[in-house]
Known about the structure:
Distance between the termini: 9 Å
Amino acid sequence: xxxxxxxxxxxxxxxxxxxxxxxxxxxxxxxxxxxxxxxxxxxxxxxxxxxxxxxxxxxxxxxxxxxxxxxxxxxxxxxxxxxxxxxxxxxxxxxxxxxxxxxxxxxxxxxxxxxxxxxxxxxxxxxxxxxxxxxxxxxxxxxxxxxxxxxxxxxxxxxxxxxxxxxxxxxxxxxxxxxxxxxxxxxxxxxxxxxxxxxxxxxxxxxxxxxxxxxxxxxxxxxxxxxxxxxxxxxxxxxxxxxxxxxxxxxxxxxxxxxxxxxxxxxxxxxxxxxxxxxxxxxxxxxxxxxxxxxxxxxxxxxxxxxxxxxxxxxxxxxxxxxxxxxxxxxxxxxxxxxxxxxxxxxxxxxxxxxxxxxxxxxxxxxxxxxxxxxxxxxxxxxxxxxxxxxxxx
Length: 394
C-alpha cells in the first residue's frame, strides 16, 4: 500500500477494538461480580450505548465545522482514559453510571472521526478499508481470548486495570497517526447534511442500522452470563467470542471482491437475515457446542459484512464536508439500537428467559431486513460520484 500509513492506521484500530473486546464480553460479568441484578446490569451496559446517541453527532458536527478531526480523536482518547480511572473511587450504582456515561461520551467521539481520516487516506482505494479494519478484529480476538483465560484463574477485581492499559494504547496510537482530510470529488455536494440525509434510501438505511443493533442487545449484554449458566468455562467463553471475530476477519479479507460482485443492498439484506438465524440458535441451542460454533461463525455476517457494507453506504451517500456527520449518525443510530437492546434484554432476561429474549432479537433483525427490502436501492444515489471498487482489489 504505497503512500498509505497502513500500520499507523491499523494500530489505532487494534487498540480501539481491543477495548471493545474487553468490554463487550466482560463488562456485564464484572457488574455481576459486583453483585448487581440483571436489570441493573442491563441499565449500566446501556448507558455507554445511549451516549453513542449524543456524542458522535456533537463531535461529528464539530469535526466537520473545524476540520480538526485528529485533534478530536486524540483528545477523546485521552479523556476516555482519565474519566474511566474514576471507577476506582466507588462501586455504587450511581457512581458507576456516571463513569459509564462520562468515559463513553469521549470514547464515542473517537471512532467516527477516525473513520473519516482513514477513508481520506485511502481516497480512491476505499475497498482496502477492510484490510486495515481487520486489525481491529485481531485486537478484539487477542483481548477476549486472553482475558477469558486470565479471569478463569484471577479475580475480576483486576478487570478495570486491564481496561486502563488498553485505553493507554489507544492514546499512544492516536499520537502516531498522520492527519488527512477528505478530498472533494468534482461537482456539487447536493446541499447540506439534512438534504443529503433525505436522499432516497438513506433514512431507511439508518432505520435498519438501529434495528440491527437492537437485535444485538442480548448478545452484548448477556451472552457471557448465558454461557456460564450453561456450564461453559470462562476460558472457553473467551475463545468462543474470539471465534466469532475470526470469522469477521476472514470476511474482511474477501470483502472487496464480495462488494465487487454484489450490491450494498444485497450484502446488507443477507447480513440481517443471517443475524435473525444466529439469535435463534443462541437462544435455543447454545447448550450444543456444535451449534454454538456455527452461530459464532455467523458473526462474519452479523458484524463483518454488515459493517463493511454500511461504512461504504455512508461514504457514498454524503459529500466530503458531511462525512463526519454521516459516520457520526451511523454510530448514533447504532447506539440507540444497542441501548434499547441492552435495556429490553436486561428486563426480559429474568422474566422471559434466554430463548424468548433472543427470539425478540431475531424479530428485530428480520425487521431490518424488511426495511432494506422495501426501501433500499441497489445503488445509493451518491453525494460523491460512486467509486469503482472492482479495480481496487489487491
